[in-house]
């Protein structure tokens, strides 16, 4: 039986996946890559960004499992990991009231992305669920990891998975906003 948190994350990933597929699956390559302005991500770039961010956690966990994982001293200060995890989680909430700039390693390619991005995203979501399930023992241990973007940013693995799942909904909302702008421009 899966840990209740893992069941919750899986359910939310399935819901997000279904939302992306229903909203953007029928779009053409041109529609997926449409941008309302320079510096604003297209629907395709939002999906690519999620794949890049989520997969950046894989090597961190692999490193932990190979036992050469070293945390910075900040991880040893009891309240720091929980505080940083909470802070990051607040910054990725789906409501998008506050714009947040991403780390350069997580920027999308910013080139024309194939309409196959939908299939790649759906496949990625299934792999993400497997990745979370395969690390259920680490969820149980409540381990601390560092951010793939900065080794000095530490938080519990449970916070990382919560951030990932919440962050996906944020970008779904961002992609919907882009689609709404596109429809408005076309007179719909």
Plain-language structure description:
The protein is mainly alpha-helical and 188 residues long. It has a single domain (4-185), classed as Up-down Bundle (Four Helix Bundle (Hemerythrin (Met), subunit A)), CATH 1.20.120. It is 61% helix and 6% strand. The protein has eight helices and two strands. It has helices spanning 4-24, 29-33, 43-55, 57-65, 79-91, 117-134, 136-141, 157-185, and strands at residues 144-147, 150-156. The protein has a two-stranded antiparallel ribbon. Strand 1 and strand 2 form a beta hairpin. The model has no long low-confidence stretch (mean pLDDT 91).
Keywords:
188 residues; mainly alpha; 8 helices; globular
Task: Produce the secondary structure layout.
Layout: H1 4-24, H2 29-33, H3 43-55, H4 57-65, H5 79-91, H6 117-134, H7 136-141, E1 144-147, E2 150-156, H8 157-185
Antiparallel strand pairs: 1-2
Kindly summarize this structure in a few lines.
With 188 residues, the chain is mostly helical.
């Amino acid at each position: 039986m899966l840990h209740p948190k893992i069941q919750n994350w899986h359910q939310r990933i399935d819901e997000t996946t279904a939302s992306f597929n229903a909203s953007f699956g029928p779009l053409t390559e041109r529609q997926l890559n449409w941008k309302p302005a320079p510096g604003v991500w297209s629907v395709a770039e939002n999906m690519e960004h999620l794949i890049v961010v989520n997969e950046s956690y894989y090597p961190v966990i692999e490193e932990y499992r190979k036992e050469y994982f070293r945390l910075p001293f900040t991880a040893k200060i009891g309240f720091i990991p929980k505080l940083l995890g909470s802070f990051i989680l607040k910054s990725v909430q789906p409501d998008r009231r506050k714009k947040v700039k991403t780390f350069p390693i997580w920027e999308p390619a910013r080139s024309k992305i194939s309409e196959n991005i939908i299939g790649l995203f759906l496949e990625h979501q299934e792999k993400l669920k497997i990745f979370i399930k395969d690390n259920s023992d680490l969820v149980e241990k409540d381990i601390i990891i560092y951010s793939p973007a900065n080794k000095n940013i530490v938080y519990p693995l449970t916070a990382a998975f919560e951030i990932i799942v919440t962050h996906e909904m944020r970008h779904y909302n961002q992609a919907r906003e882009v689609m709404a702008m596109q429809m408005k421009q076309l007179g719909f």
